Amino acid sequence: LEKMTDLVAVWEVALSDGVHKIEFEHGTTSGKRVVYVDGKEEIRREWMFKLVGKETFTVGATKTKAAINIDAVSGFAYEYTLEINGKSLKQYIENRLKTTNTWILSLGGTDYRIVLEKDTMDVWCNGQKMETAGEFVEDGTETHFTVADHSCCIKAVSSGKRKEGIIHTLIVDNREIPEAVE
Question: Which residue, 7, 39, 41, 114, has most beta carbons within 10 Å?
Answer without folding.
Answer: 114
